[in-house]
Design brief:
Blueprint: H1 6-21, H2 25-41, H3 48-67, H4 71-107, H5 126-141, H6 151-159, H7 172-179, H8 187-220, H9 227-258, H10 276-282, H11 285-299, H12 306-324, H13 328-350, H14 362-384, H15 388-398, H16 413-432, H17 442-459
Helix pairs in contact: 1-2, 2-6, 3-4, 3-5, 3-6, 4-5, 8-9, 8-16, 8-17, 9-14, 9-16, 11-12, 12-13, 13-14, 14-15
């Protein structure tokens, strides 16, 4: 069930109306759980059993940890939880990838394996809810969260439909306490929730789906474009994936807010970042903080010297790349991001900023932002390309070392859409620096709402495209 569809709008309006008409707090939670399972089963009825399996596994593991008098039993429960959840994730997301990679490796030695095609269906959102439920058992083991004693609450935590399919990844310590509190209707929540849902939908329909026409054309035949059109195509993808994913996150946060729940922000204008490290503090925040807290720090973090720090960064980002997809191009993207973070850290060590030093000037900040954006774009080449050959062709063309002999015309509308993203980032930069808050005046908000509505009506399609992160 796509957020950008009439089907979801109808479903959501019915759920909200029923939810707020019920007086029983428990019945409201039952309604949300049933609605969440129905929402997921609209993609595949059978695969909802995987969510149920993860839910029961981790609820049971949590109960065992809560009752276990010895660390040994707690450790066994955690290991069972990790093996069970990551085992399901590996089978359903990576089995075909591992088998094909093994076949390719064997073929390099002149041997042949009988082709095995498992054709396993990738469950929508499995990467997200697996990380989400694992955060509960790990935090419980660390004694950072209280054990959940109500199966209904825990099941709703895992399956809550606004963020089930593509995040944000919600922590148990943030969401479970909200389930024990009776939610009250508030017009302010309705207003802010609708604002987020409308602007998020506009990001998807007006920006992401429009840019997708150019992006698909460029990346499907990278050898047919010269340097400038290639830069337009890659930049268009950078803006497309931001508008698509942040748009989904905005809709999820807004939909939850209207129901009385708070979900953490997942994006903070990432293309304002002045370093790769800051980029990951602004991009997919729920994933980057998850990788930091449950992978990077347990590996040792920045403790133990520079080389161990670089090793931990590389390991974390490579596994983060693999989390995104079962492909060597995603592994290479993670490797690239880890390398950029290491370079960033090495530069800060060689050229440290003195304590109390004034902020760089506007030109310096602009140059840092541009360099970070260019670095991100080269990373997006690996992320979007189907093969390493396509990625190499694209990157070489961007560097002026290849490509078609003449320019291939592109739609001029893509430049206007990209300019819109740039302008909103610039305005957000002024807002962050306290110059002014351009979203406060009622007139400005009315203009934005009108523009969003008109844009959605003008650019919407009969069959809306799926959000990019649905495939992860």
């Amino acid at each position: 069930m796509n957020f950008a569809s009439v089907q979801f709008l109808t479903f959501y309006v019915v759920v909200v109306a029923l939810y707020w008409s019920l007086r029983s707090h428990r019945m409201r939670k039952v309604l949300l759980l049933v609605a969440s399972y129905y929402f997921y089963m609209s993609w595949n009825v059978k695969l909802v059993s995987l969510i149920l399996a993860s839910t029961m596994l981790d609820f049971t593991a949590g109960r065992v940890m809560a009752r276990s008098p010895t660390p040994r039993h707690r450790t066994i429960a955690l290991v069972v939880s990790c093996v069970g959840n990551l085992g399901l994730l590996s089978i359903f997301k990576y089995a075909d990838f591992f088998v094909s990679s093994l076949q390719d490796l064997v073929s390099t030695f002149g041997l042949t394996l009988t082709p095995v095609e498992l054709h396993i269906v990738l469950p929508v959102g499995i990467s997200f809810y697996t990380f989400q439920t694992l955060s509960y058992t790990i935090d419980l083991y660390r004694r950072k969260v209280e054990p959940c004693r109500d199966f209904l609450d825990f099941a709703l935590f895992v399956a809550f439909f606004p963020q089930l399919v593509a995040g944000p990844i919600v922590r148990a310590k943030h969401f479970l306490p909200q389930l024990s509190t009776v939610r009250s209707w508030a017009w302010s929540r309705l207003g802010s929730g609708l604002w987020l849902m409308l602007t998020g939908l506009a990001k998807k329909v007006v920006i992401a789906d429009t840019l997708a026409l150019t992006v698909d054309r460029v990346f499907s035949a990278p050898d047919q474009f010269s340097c400038f059109p290639m830069w337009v195509g890659v930049t268009a993808f950078a803006f497309q994936i931001y508008a698509d994913f942040s748009g989904y996150s905005d809709i999820a946060i807004g939909a939850a807010r209207i129901l009385g729940f708070d979900i953490p922000v997942n994006f903070s204008h990432p293309y304002l970042a002045r370093s790769v490290r800051e980029f990951w503090q602004r991009w997919h925040i729920s994933l980057s903080t998850w990788l930091r807290d449950y992978l990077y720090i347990p590996l040792g973090g920045s403790r133990g010297g520079s080389w161990r720090t670089y090793r931990n960064l590389m390991t974390t980002m490579v596994l983060g790349g693999l989390w995104h997809g079962a492909s060597w191009t995603f592994v290479a993207w993670g490797l690239y991001q880890g390398l950029m973070l290491c370079v960033n850290r090495l530069y800060n060590a060689i050229v440290p900023r003195p304590a109390g030093a004034p902020e760089p000037g506007m030109l310096t900040r602009g140059a840092q932002t541009l360099m970070t954006f260019v670095a991100a774009c080269f990373g997006w080449v690996l992320f979007r390309s189907e093969t390493f050959h396509d990625a190499q062709t694209t990157a070489m063309t961007m560097l002026g070392l290849g490509g078609a002999p003449k320019d291939t015309p592109l739609r001029l509308s893509v430049l206007w859409i990209m300019a819109l993203v740039v302008v909103t980032h610039i305005l957000a930069g002024f807002r962050e620096r306290g110059r002014f808050d351009w979203t406060k005046p009622l007139f400005v908000r009315a203009v934005i709402v009108t523009g969003c509505v008109l844009g959605i009506l003008a650019f919407s399609r009969p069959n809306p495209s799926a959000f990019i992160y649905f495939q992860f």
